[in-house]
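Appendix C: a fully annotated inverse folding record. The material below is reproduced so that readers can follow the format used throughout the book. The structure is listed first as tokens, followed by the designed sequence.
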């Protein structure tokens, strides 16, 4: 079990807090650690409650806004989450780890131009494959939300090649593409993707039910 203490907070972040708060920094760092622990334990309401008092005290420190934004995202508070993640984005230039989450907030808010902006920015940074996959999923889903199913399919086909080692993000991409095929009326394409997923992980999401629904 994670031990919650100021030692759990990154040294660089802790030093920024100390510069800002001086002798009262340890209490704030401990509160941040508790918020991080609550988030990692999926207690998102608690994480948000703990981090909120730090927003005014430590405005502009990326991690503070990131934790607040991610907690709000998990609670479905899309606009609040986007606001905090945008502050974190501005405070950490070149950091794109949360771009898929921020894009998903904008997707929920139907601000599709922001989804496109974040997707293009993410691609330019050449992020790790898993992060790129998450961004692609959100961007394609936003296209589908707007009725552009074929454009969404074209975007997702970049994630359907057979990798040397199948990872979680490959399954997620295949699932989204299979769902898009199904929605577009391409039953054979959907069945092929869901079968591909099932052969790698039979318990993934509701893939067995999807195949049963599609039939033989």
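Designed amino acids, in order:
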């Amino acid at each position: 079990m994670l031990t919650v203490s100021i030692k759990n907070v990154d040294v660089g972040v802790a030093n920024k807090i100390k510069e800002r708060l001086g002798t009262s920094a340890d209490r704030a760092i401990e509160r941040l650690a508790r918020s991080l622990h609550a988030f990692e334990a999926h207690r998102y309401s608690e994480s948000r409650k703990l981090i909120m008092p730090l927003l005014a005290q430590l405005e502009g420190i990326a991690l503070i806004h990131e934790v607040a934004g991610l907690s709000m995202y998990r609670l479905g508070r899309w606009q609040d989450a986007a606001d905090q993640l945008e502050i974190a984005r501005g405070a950490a230039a070149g950091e794109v780890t949360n771009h898929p989450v921020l894009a998903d907030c904008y997707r929920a808010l139907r601000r599709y131009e922001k989804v496109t902006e974040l997707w293009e920015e993410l691609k330019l940074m050449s992020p790790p494959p898993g992060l790129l996959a998450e961004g692609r999923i959100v961007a394609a889903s936003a296209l589908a939300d707007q009725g552009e199913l074929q454009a969404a399919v074209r975007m997702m086909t970049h994630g359907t090649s057979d990798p040397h080692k199948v990872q979680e993000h490959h399954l997620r991409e295949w699932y989204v593409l299979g769902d898009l095929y199904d929605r577009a009326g391409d039953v054979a394409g959907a069945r092929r993707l869901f079968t591909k997923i099932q052969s790698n992980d039979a318990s993934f999401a509701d893939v067995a039910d999807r195949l049963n629904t599609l039939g033989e």
